[in-house]
Every structure is written in structure tokens, then in C-alpha cells.
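As described in the Methods, two query proteins were run sequentially through the folding procedure within a single session, without resetting any intermediate state between them. The first query and its resulting C-alpha cells are shown here.
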Amino acid sequence: MKKYILCLSFLATAGLMLSSCSDDDLSDKSVIVTSETEQTQFDKWLEANFVNPYNIQFKYRYEHNESDMNYYNVPADYKQAVELAHIVKYTCVEAYDEVAGVNFTRNYFPKEFFCTGTWEFRNNGTFILGTAEGGKKIFLAGVNYLDQYKDNINTLNHFYLKTIHHEFTHILNQTKDFPRSYQQVTGSGYVADSWSESPYNENYLERGFISSYSQHSATEDFAEMLSMYITNTPAQWNKWMEEAGTDGARLLQQKLDIVRTYMKDSWNIDIDQLRNSVLDRETKVASGQIDLTDLTVK
């Protein structure tokens, strides 16, 4: 009987509590708070120069969902993000406009750039400069180091611009695949993730690879061939061919011929014209002829 009385007492108390709660007025304010970001002049400039003409988003604010959770990332510095946006537009987007037409750029250039401040370091001593995802997005790291490298065409290419051309090549290949004959040129030479280790990090030119990373796979090799070709002078390319020796130069030339034909037949792009446009624009940036801070919206 005692247990029964206690249960009744508990139910009565609960009933009073429910009755009391039902009499309270509910707030009309949501407990979910959404963040609001004030549009800066840079945002307006991006809208006028990337979104409206190309439907491209250039994201410079840190976004958790856009980042790779396998690495520590820091936000991009605002000033250097402004500079990088100008550089990307002038040296990459508009270079393709010049040689392939604005419709080509609108149709095939990635629809999103996402920037973070530092590199993504791997355990093997290498680090990620950029990646491409699904033909729609290019991730660019190391924005906060741009001021150290923007005045030298070689470092500007190495850390930023070659990466963009490399990743854009992947996007083009995802739309129209390159010939399988390319892989057969040095088919036994691909070593996957061992490309940065000895002995593969040396004498790769002699084995028919334009860079150490080219040895990763045929897909990376193709993207390296095109991006290295259009971001280096004819003099530098000829120097590499001399260093490659007779056999290495022959293999590299076979690959370059396939790349050249693919770009012409698939996209109607002359890679020599593209190289001329890219190098001319990069030279003007590195020499300070281009204002990288102007955010005037025309």
C-alpha cells in the first residue's frame, strides 16, 4: 500500500508540473541563431568580376564544411585574398578567355574557388598546394604566403598558378578524357605515392617525366605536362629537354604531342598561344604592372 501511495503522489506532482508548463507563454524567437556577414567592397568586386560574368564563387572566408578535416586550416588573410583574386582572374580566367573565348571559360572553368591561409602538410614531408573536386571546385592553400612569392614569376607559378592550371586540366579531362595512349608512353614508370621518395625524386626527366609528381599516375602526369608547359618559357623547356637526354626527351616529346593534339581537337586550344598569354600576364603581375588592390566596381 505504501508503494501505491507514493506512486499516486508522484503522478499528482507530475500533473501539476505539466499544468504549470502549459500555462507558460512560448517565445516567438528561435533558439537557432544564423550568422550574418556584412558585404564588403571585396564581396561586391567578386560579384561583379567572378559571379556575374562567369558564375564563379571565390570564397575567401573560412568555412568549416569546405575544409578538409584531415588537416589544420587557418583563414585566408583578407588583403592577400584580394590580391590572389585579381591574379587568378587576370592570369588564368582571362587567359582562357583570350585563347578559347569567354563561352569556353563560362562553361568549363570551375564554379568555385575556396582559399585557406596555410598549406596542408602530409606526413611524408610534402604539402598540398591545391585540389580539384568533381570538376566544380578548386581548393587553393597558402594564401597567407602570397606576398612572399607574388613578385617572382617562378615562385608565383610554383605555389599558385601552375596549381590552378593543373587542377583545371583535371576538370577538362573529367569532361573529355585524354587518350589511353598517353599512359603507354611511360606506363611502367608510375609509382603512386612513392614519387617524393628516393630514387624517384631525382633524375625524373631522364625517365620521361616533367616533374617528380608526374610519376604518381598518368592522370597527374598529363596535368603536370600541360601546366608545366604553359607556365614556363620556351628557353626553360628546352633546358629541361637537354637535361632529359636523348631517351628522356623523346618520351617527353611524345607526351607533349599527345597533350597538344588533345587540347586542339577536344577544346580548340593552341597550347603555344595559351602559353604566350599566360606568361605575358604573369610577367606583368610579377613586375608590378597590375593593380592587385583595386576594388572599384564598374
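Immediately afterward, the second query was submitted; its sequence and C-alpha cells are:
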Amino acid sequence: MNYSHVFHAGNFADIVKHAALLALLGRLQADPAPLTVIDTHGGRGLYDLDAPEARRSAEAESGIARLVEDPAPPEAVGRLKTAVLAASKAAGGRRYPGSPLLVAQRLRPQDGLTVFEFNPREAEILTVSLAGAGAVFVETADGYDGAVRSLPPEGQALVLIDPPYERGDDYDRCLATLQAITRLCPRAAIMIWLPIKDLETFDAFVRRAEEIRPVRIAEVRLRPLLDPMRMNGCALVLAAAPEGLDLDLAAICEWTASRLGEGGRARLWGSA
């Protein structure tokens, strides 16, 4: 599969992932210590929701467009709405900011961001999107390996592992990266995004993650898991998350399941 996120930008899964990322970032930055953020699969940073690809899938219309229309979303979701409206205003059209741009705009002077993007063309666009953002580095390289070698020797660290799951080994490499980071930098906060298509694949991944270290799961199902060829929901697998994050995750998952789902449900579970 030749994956391009431009077809999917601003869908329900982006809302869960990016609202949680903003909440996680805010809680980590309550500590004055320097924070290094590492993004394994950066994409292009900013997406045009009126591009032909986005219009063809129409995923943003049942995702971020619904959030923008909500006059009073929970604070944890409202932060993303504010960021999307600001990006759209700045561009003069409907835009959706990806994780690198959301983080880059919130870096403090003592913080840094390293983003990996394997596709050279996407990496070029990403570099332009992040121009002038401060201590931001874009590498055209494998993000799994890059995340491990970019861990800081001191200070705080946040690693976002967010592959498109187009390769057969993406699940295995996510787990291998979780294990390597745990060994080298156990203090690092880690957030892995997962699609939920069928229960067997999802449960197997979580079981293997729990063998590596305690993890917390934030899960959103839009609908019953009846069609394994369809993304029926998504989940975040978190390690070393800061105290209080559960409050944000619950609000994000419940809003998404109730407002965007078809008989959807949300839950938080796990031992971390």
C-alpha cells in the first residue's frame, strides 16, 4: 500500500491522537525541565482539507468538521479545535495541523523536537511547514531506529509512535521500539497509536506490550467490530504517562465515541 495521510487527515482517529498529544504535552511541560519530543512518522505537518484527496475520502467531514461545529467541547478536545481554527485562519482556508506542527508551536525555549519522515517528498513539505519553529529537526530516515538513537541523556522525553500500519512488520516494530526505549530511557513517556479493526490483532498487541512494561490503554470504538477490513476504532497505548492524564483521555475518548460513533463506546484500562 502507498499510504498518504492527506486522504485521512482530520478523521476521528486524528482527533483522539492529537487531542491526547496536546494534553500529554501540556502536562509534561508543567515541569520546567527540558523536554525532548520525538515523532517517528511525521507526515507533512499541515494538510489541506479542501484538497481533492481529502474531499474524496470525506473523512474530515465526519471528524474534525464535527468538532469545529461543537460550540462547547470538553477542554481536552477544545484545545485541538482552537489549534485547527488557528491553522485554517493563518492559511486562509481549511487546514489540519499534524502532530509535528502541533508540537512545534508549543515548544518552550528549553524544549526540542525531532521528527522522522521516511518519504523524501513528504519530508520536504514537512520541513517547509515547520520553518521558523525553533529547535526542530527533520530527518528523512526510519523513525523506529531514529527514535531510539535520539533519546536525550537527561531531561524529559516524549516519544510518539504513529505508523500508518501499511507494512506487515509495523506492529512488531512498534513493540521492538517500546522495548528499546524502555531499556535505554525508562523515564520517557511513550504514546503508540493503534487502529482497531479486529479484536484478535488489537488484543495480541496489548498483551505483548504488557509483557514489556505496564501500559495504559485509551480505547475508542465507533461501532461493533464486525468488519475487520474497516477501521472500527482506535486506541492509544501509553507508558510512563504523567499524573492526571486519565482525566483528559476520558474526556477525549468519550466525546469521540458519543459524538462521532454509531453506538460507540470508550474506556480506559491497563495497569500503568
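The radius of gyration is 17 Å. We note this only descriptively and draw no conclusion about the first query from it.
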